[in-house]
Amino acid sequence: MFTGIVEGTGIIKEITKGPQESNLGIEPQFHMDDIKIGDSISVDGVCLTVMAINSGVLFMDVSSETLSRTTLGALKIGSMVNLERAMLPTTRLGGHFVTGHVDGTGIIIKKERRGNSWFYRIEIPGVFSRYMIEKGSVAVDGISLTINNCGEAFFDVNIIPHTAQSTTILNKRVGNRVNIELDIIGKYVEKLIRDKEKDTEGKDSSIDYDMLKRYGFD
Hints:
Blueprint: E1 8-17, E2 22-28, E3 40-43, E4 46-54, E5 57-62, H1 64-69, E6 80-85, E7 104-114, E8 117-123, E9 137-140, E10 143-146, E11 149-150, E12 154-159, H2 161-166, E13 177-181, H3 184-201, H4 209-214
Antiparallel strand pairs: 1-2, 1-6, 2-5, 3-4, 3-6, 4-5, 7-8, 7-13, 8-12, 9-10, 9-13, 11-12
């Protein structure tokens, strides 16, 4: 489990590609002396397990499932990635609950400077939109961000100077893909309500205003 508060960046030093899987060698650009084999690391929002450590380089396997759902397959030697160690029970939860299980990717369709911050509009698959609410949370390349506005197939976020300096987000340009993890709480709520709806009516149903009203969310 992570918070989406990126600790720093890492540089891809090695990539070994197999028939279906890959292995990444990542050199953190900040102190991670407490890392040991078996630890979980968020790499651009993807939860990976440290399999080996050699001269400060962390080696992690990437499964075919992960390659198919994320941007990790497009990484090259020299690429920069966002890194976050798994949270501790004593960690201040400055972001939101992030699992590192990426739902899919989005495409940056707008990027512009607004004062000291940056505005991004990200296009997403339409099915993702039902988990988006204004002032809700989303993880983009492992960064916990607040949704300022959202539509049927997009959402807007604002990147403050600290986030811009601590992550790789400003390296992303219009047309680049980013990893998206939806808010897990929203997904659980949807499943619970759908299951209850099946039990009471014997059929599946999507969440809408009428359903929420029936269950007291008015």
